[in-house]
Amino acid sequence: MKITTPLIAAAALGLMLSACDSKQENARENSLEKKADAMEETADKTRDGADAKADSTENAADAIRDSGEKSADKIEESADKTRQQQ
To answer: How far is Cα 73 from Cα 65, in angstroms, rounded to an integer?
Structure first.
């Protein structure tokens, strides 16, 4: 048992040291994290732009429908007046 404790301690120390990243590895991970963050920000901007464009298109479509509805109402009013002239 006296030999087991130092072996376990040595193995634990070895695992702890191998788990530590080097400065280069940390820099690489930070660089990749920043790149991923920038990509996510681009994705968010793309999504927001598409939503804005869709909203604009929907608003334009609503305006066209309203305009068409008003024109149709005027034509129907003219048709009613024409019928009343009989």
So the answer is: 12
CB 29 within 8 A of CB 21: yes
| CA 84-74-79 angle, 5° bins | 30
Q: What is the pLDDT of residues 15-44, one digit of tens each?
A: 666 666 788 988 999 999 999 999 999 999
Give me the sign of the Cα torsion angle 39, 44, 45, 51. Answer: positive
Alpha helices in 1-86 (DSSP H): 4-19, 23-84
pTM of the model: 0.56
